[in-house]
Amino acid sequence: MNDDTLGTTTNPAASPKRKTSAKSWMVRFGLLVFLALLALLAGVLAVAIVPREWAQYLGDRIDGRMTVGTLYGLGFGFFCTLIPLVIARQALRGFKLGLRLFILLIAAVLALPNLLTLGIVLGSGDGAHAGERILDVNGPGFRNATASGAVVAGLVFLMLTWWGLLRWNDKRKIRKLRSLQAEIAEKAIDDE
Hints:
Keywords: Membrane, Transmembrane, Transmembrane helix. By secondary structure, the protein is mainly alpha-helical.
């Protein structure tokens, strides 16, 4: 088919494909914009609502008792730091990328209580300030105990990692010595 204005030949079958491709890109772009706006809305709601709700949840359980707040804080700080660190450490093994990301996602979910408390402590929004006030009144001792528990858990994790590396190194040395011992025994048999 000749195009009179350009003096070139065009293929009519290629033209609809190009329109479909452009249409699919427009749909993808629209979906991307929608997801970005949805993520922005979720972020705004998370900053405004989640810290306040987390503090209220803790305040209802602690009920203004310093000992209970300290024990809750130590428990959340220790276990919600140590367990995610141990799980996240597994992502350093030789797994495929998808499994590594899944392991890190599990670790992040298990660390969520500490991350929510950290959001209250470091946050500058109204929700974070409301959460601080709620924890001051209904959850005394929780924030400081959570930080202390997290530090202790971090130190325990470092000690466990150090011990594991020493143990791995010892196993490697034992394997090397056993192979050397087997070589010596083999030479002794050959010499006889």
